[in-house]
Structure formats: structure tokens, C-alpha cells
From TrEMBL:
<dbReference type="GO" id="GO:0005524">
    <property type="term" value="F:ATP binding"/>
</dbReference>
<protein>
    <recommendedName>
        <fullName>Actin related protein 3</fullName>
    </recommendedName>
</protein>
<dbReference type="GO" id="GO:0005856">
    <property type="term" value="C:cytoskeleton"/>
</dbReference>
<comment type="similarity">
    <text>Belongs to the actin family. ARP3 subfamily.</text>
</comment>
<keyword id="KW-0963">Cytoplasm</keyword>
<dbReference type="GO" id="GO:0003779">
    <property type="term" value="F:actin binding"/>
</dbReference>
<dbReference type="Pfam" id="PF00022">
    <property type="entry name" value="Actin"/>
</dbReference>
<keyword id="KW-0547">Nucleotide-binding</keyword>
<keyword id="KW-0067">ATP-binding</keyword>
<keyword id="KW-0009">Actin-binding</keyword>
<dbReference type="InterPro" id="IPR020902">
    <property type="entry name" value="Actin/actin-like_CS"/>
</dbReference>
<dbReference type="InterPro" id="IPR004000">
    <property type="entry name" value="Actin"/>
</dbReference>
<dbReference type="InterPro" id="IPR043129">
    <property type="entry name" value="ATPase_NBD"/>
</dbReference>
<keyword id="KW-0206">Cytoskeleton</keyword>
Length: 327
């Protein structure tokens, strides 16, 4: 089982070894009775019994208006271990339908995770679920290992610079021979949530047909369905101006109040949203350093003997834009 903790509205990805993609992707939330208030872990321990069985996780939790929906994980860090243990119980038995005593488990952790959090995780897995073996790996290292499937055998390495962008924060993580260089990790306050807000702002300025109460939800759907990073901003504008019908997409939604369909055109927003990684001042006037400069700064802060290998394998970063953006 793999648990990724990339953002505030976290999703848990889980599956079995050998598969190319996760079998399940579920929101990392849990719905409990309102009587069990947030952070009141002592009260919940006193109410063991029936209430412990009356909870839901994932999409079911979001759809329970009479329950309190809690997110045990915030910014990749577990804040409520009681709820996290119950969440993991449902993940293992209900989704994976596995006997934990018969399987080894691989869990992921965010960069700079504390030893205490790692210890709590191991305690739950060994004492509550009695697993025979557990390995906790940093997401950045696993990302490099996952890239092996697209590389020749001679090019496979666990050295590289990984950009881990979640909902609320983006980390730039240098990895040398499978070891994270923790002192050189940098984070930037630009991430998926900012792309959503910026896309929402662009759509509000142009599209008047979006229900106000659904503008954020619409922007998120547009981002996930249509957004991409363009190689050259000026050329991309020209493409849309010359042949807009080829590139402009349409998004259709349902008005939550009137239940009628509404349709909007999605044009420049497709590439202007992700562009805030290279022009962060579009979304955050207090932060103006583009992602390419952050990557270069991270590598320069690393020990001199690993800089050349790190620069050599920054090809993965080029997915954010063309090579010139890394110079």
C-alpha cells in the first residue's frame, strides 16, 4: 500500500506492487459523529465502542452532511493519529481487502518528515495491524525510481532534482544516490491551489455564465481537465489568435441551484494557469522567483561533487516548460 500526502486536501493512493498505477485514489478524510469534536482525542477514547464503528472515509465521508468531516493529514503531516489509524484500517480491509499479516507495506512520507511521525506510523502498522514488514520511503526518491520505466538501463539512477508540487506548497528536493539532501530542500508558496485561484480569477473576468457559488469548483475542473504548460508563452498566444477553434475547449457544468446546464469557453486559461510557476508574480506579488531559478539555487547549494550529476538529470524538470526556462 502506498500513501501519498502531498497537499491539504489530501488524496491517498493505494494498490499492490507490480501494477503500473494505483488501484484506488480516495480523499484522505474521515466522517465521524458531530459529538466527537476536532482535536478532542481524549473524549473519543472514552467513547470506544459503537461510535468507533460509525464512521466513513473517502468519497463516502464527503457525502455525509450529518457527520463531521475531518482531514487527519495537513500539508503532508499527520495531525490526528486516532483518526489516521481508523482511516488506515478502512483502507486496508475495505479497499485493498487484504490481511495485513500476510503483506509487506510500503508507505511514502513528505520531505523533512519528523522522526516522531515516522515512529508513530511504524507503531500503528506493527502493533495495530501486525504487518510482517514495513518500509517508509521519501516520495522524491520513489519518483526517481518510477522514472526508470521510461529510461534505458544505463540511464537509470537515483540521483536527480525532484519537484514535488501539491495543493498548498511546492518542494524542490535534491536526491543523490537515493539519499535526500535535506539541508538543501527549498519550498515555494506556489502550488495547485494557486493555479486554481488564478484560473478562477481569469474565468470570472471573462465568463459571466458561471454560477458564483460554483466558480471555484469550475476552475478546479478546468485546471484538471484542460491545463498544460506551454513551451513558449508568446507563441502560445499566437496559436490561439490564429486558429482559436482548434485550441479553445468547452466545459459544461450543472448549476447546483437551477439544475440547468451552463457552458463556458476555455482558452488562454489552459496555459496561463500553470504559467504562475514561471511568473509567480501573477498570483503572489510577494514571491517573484520562478521555479527554474529555485531549481538552480537548490543545486548550487548542494555539495560540489553532486552538482554535475544533478544538472545532468534535470530533464524531468523540463516537463514544466522548455529547456531555456532552466537556464
Amino acid at each position: 500500500m502506498i500513501i501519498e500526502r502531498p497537499r491539504a486536501g489530501t488524496y491517498t493512493k493505494l494498490g499492490y506492487a507490480g501494477n503500473t498505477e494505483p488501484q484506488f485514489i480516495v480523499p484522505s478524510c474521515i466522517a465521524i459523529k458531530e459529538s466527537a469534536k476536532v482535536g478532542d482525542q481524549a473524549q473519543r477514547r472514552m467513547m470506544k465502542g459503537v461510535d468507533d464503528l460509525d464512521f466513513f472515509i473517502g468519497d463516502e465521508a464527503i457525502d455525509k452532511p450529518t457527520y463531521a468531516t475531518k482531514w487527519p493529514i495537513r500539508h503532508g503531516i499527520v495531525e490526528d493519529w486516532d483518526l489516521m489509524e481508523r482511516f488506515m484500517e478502512q483502507v486496508i480491509f475495505k479497499y485493498l481487502r487484504a490481511e495485513p499479516e500476510d503483506h509487506y507495506f510500503l508507505l511514502t512520507e513528505p520531505p523533512l518528515n519528523t522522526p516522531e511521525n515516522r515512529e508513530y506510523t511504524a507503531e500503528i502498522m506493527f502493533e495495530s495491524f501486525n504487518v510482517p514488514g514495513l518500509y517508509i520511503a521519501v516520495q522524491a526518491v520513489l519518483a526517481l525510481a518510477a522514472s526508470w520505466t521510461s529510461r534505458q538501463v544505463g540511464e537509470r539512477t537515483l540521483t536527480g532534482t525532484v519537484i514535488d508540487s501539491g495543493d498548498g506548497v511546492t518542494h524542490v528536493i535534491p536526491v543523490a544516490e537515493g539519499y535526500v539532501i535535506g539541508s538543501c530542500i527549498k519550498h515555494i508558496p506556489i502550488a495547485g491551489r494557486d493555479i486554481t485561484y488564478f484560473t478562477q480569477q481569469l474565468l470570472r473576468e471573462r465568463e459571466v455564465g458561471i454560477p458564483p457559488e460554483q466558480s471555484l469548483e469550475t476552475a478546479k475542473a478546468v485546471k484538471e481537465r484542460f491545463s498544460y504548460v506551454c513551451p513558449d508563452l508568446v507563441k502560445e498566444f499566437n496559436k490561439y489568435d490564429i486558429d482559436g477553434s482548434k485550441w479553445i475547449k468547452q466545459y459544461t457544468g450543472i448549476n447546483a441551484i437551477s439544475k440547468k446546464e451552463f457552458t463556458i469557453d476555455v482558452g488562454y486559461e489552459r496555459f496561463l494557469g500553470p504559467e504562475i510557476f514561471f511568473h509567480p508574480e501573477f498570483a503572489n506579488p510577494d514571491f517573484t522567483q520562478p521555479i527554474s531559478e529555485v531549481v538552480d539555487e537548490v543545486i548550487q547549494n548542494c555539495p560540489i561533487d553532486v552538482r554535475r550529476p544533478l544538472y545532468k538529470v534535470t530533464k524531468a524538470v523540463k516537463r514544466f516548460g522548455k529547456c531555456a526556462r532552466l537556464s
